[in-house]
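Researcher: Next entry in the queue.
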Amino acid sequence: MIDRLEGVVCHVDEQYVVVQAGGIGFSVLVPDVSRFSVGQTALVHAYLHWNQEQGPSLFGFLDGRDRTVFLLIISCPGVGPKLGLAALKQLSAGAFVAAIVAGDIKMLSSVSGIGARKAENIIVHLKNKAADLVGSGFEVGAQGAWARTLTEVSGALEGLGYQPYEVSSALNFLKEREAPTDPSVAPLLKQALSFLSRQRSV
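Model: Structure for this entry, 202 residues:
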């Protein structure tokens, strides 16, 4: 297993770079080739992926967080490395994780190759993993505070005995509203409970 490469970038192509390390030139697929330049000394966090038809491919990331999220993405059934690279190029690692935790189909669908149905599939399969990642200290930026709050609201509603479809409905209601600049659980939980109360009385 190749965990990381440190060497000089000797070639930059449209989708990959060549990093020369220890006298060997490694062809590395990367999310954004614009972050590399010929002659640059780079420390690349690597992942060796095996495809039954195409054999091995080496993927590389300048930030270990990107590799972590890349591995998260491709752990979803039906999502391959190509889509993982596209997601990291078009969204930051933190924004992608926040979108999964928040169930933000619109944001995920903004990535080339991810439609609404695939976005829903990604959220279903990766939401718990993404929430665990955030809970372990993975920083997701400004969007992360909103995502973490929604996760806590979701947990509180589940703890109160609401069904999954009710929790999902309440979270969608909250997400349709403008995200607060300093989100906290209590007022949002109150809004969610009020919404669910109205829904049950209909």
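Model: The longest strand covers residues 41-51.
Researcher: Noted, moving on.
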